[in-house]
Specification:
The protein is α+β, with helices and mostly antiparallel strands. 35% of the residues lie in helices and 26% in strands. It has nine helices and twelve strands. The protein has a seven-stranded mixed β-sheet, sandwiched between helices. The chain has a five-stranded mixed β-sheet with strand order 9-8-10-12-11. The radius of gyration is 19 Å and the shape is globular. 41% of the residues are buried. This is N-acetyltransferase domain-containing protein. InterPro entries: Acyl_CoA_acyltransferase, GNAT_N_AcTrfase_prd. It comes from Amycolatopsis rifamycinica.
Length: 293
């Protein structure tokens, strides 16, 4: 699950710590790393409440978190007073603790809309830079529009791989029972794009303007809300995803599966062919650029 990276980026502890502190202040929380059993148990309960996994299928146990932090890995929580509203868990990987993989992060419903997720990620960034880590990787479901916008625009992470059915059946309240395709992203912590995003100045893309300039829609939504493939024969290509895949899975599982297959074929195929995701329009479009042949 961990990207192979090297420690080539210069540490930016002062800048990253200031950005993290500012984001926490703006969201009204205090973020700290966690080591005590009571705190780790609260993190486990928070994740259970957010993902609602099937009985006997816990996301992370208190014991696992305890072992991870004792080995020097990252668990942090966002608190409003004594209430835990968000948490993030990451662990080191190859080469020789040079990479950090952020396995799970979540915010309780009571904390939505406050920027707590952003504050948690900036805290994680500052912590990782202090360890000499240049890149953090994580996965997300490419069909979830709000996560694509958060990861690719607000944080300026960039997809590295499309991973079909990465986790296998998860059977929880968010992923349902279908395939668990994921995009693996790499967050280059000291890059100009990430530094600008951390300072609240993310680079935004406009799919409508790109289409007016010659970009083509390799996947769009049809009149019935289902996926409609199109051409991919331009230097800039757009790939659509539905507005709310979680609601669609509940209301129309067949159409939800159709989107999964279409995005796997089109977005996954473009990435496998050498195209790069360069941004995400909040209106629901991945923007990809292709190297000239």
């Amino acid at each position: 699950m961990t990207e192979v990276v090297t420690n080539t980026a210069p540490p930016l502890p002062d800048e990253s710590a200031a950005a993290a502190a500012g984001a926490a202040l703006a969201s009204g929380v205090r973020i700290r790393t966690l080591t005590e059993l009571a705190d780790l148990a609260a993190v486990s309960r928070l994740f259970e409440a957010i993902w609602r996994p099937a009985p006997g299928n816990p996301l992370v146990t208190t014991e696992l978190l305890r072992a991870m932090v004792s080995a020097g890995n990252y668990v942090a929580g966002a608190f409003d007073g004594t209430e835990l509203l968000g948490a993030c868990f990451a662990f080191f990987g190859e080469p020789a603790k040079g990479g950090l993989h952020s396995h799970i992060a979540g915010v309780a419903a009571a904390g939505h809309g406050r920027g707590i997720g952003f504050a948690l990620k900036l805290h994680q960034r500052a912590w990782a830079l202090r360890q000499g880590v240049a890149v953090i990787s994580w996965t997300f479901d490419p069909l979830v529009r709000r996560n694509a916008h958060f990861n690719l625009t607000k944080l300026a992470a960039r997809p590295a791989h499309y991973l079909p059915d990465f986790y296998g059946p998860m059977q929880d309240g968010i992923n349902g029972t279908g395939d668990t395709d994921r995009l693996m992203v790499a967050w280059d912590l000291a890059s100009p794009a990430v530094r600008a995003a951390a300072a609240g100045r993310p680079d935004r893309v406009d799919a409508a303007a790109l289409r007016a300039g010659g970009a083509v829609a390799a996947l769009a939504a049809g009149p019935d809300g289902g996926p409609v493939p199109g051409p991919a024969d331009a230097p800039v290509v757009l790939v659509a995803i539905p507005p709310d895949i979680e609601a669609l899975r509940r209301a129309d599982p067949g159409r939800g599966r159709a989107w999964r297959v279409a995005v796997r074929e089109v977005l996954g195929g473009l990435l496998a062919g050498g195209a790069a995701v360069t941004g995400f329009d909040r209106a629901g479009w991945y923007v990809l650029t292709k190297e000239p042949s």
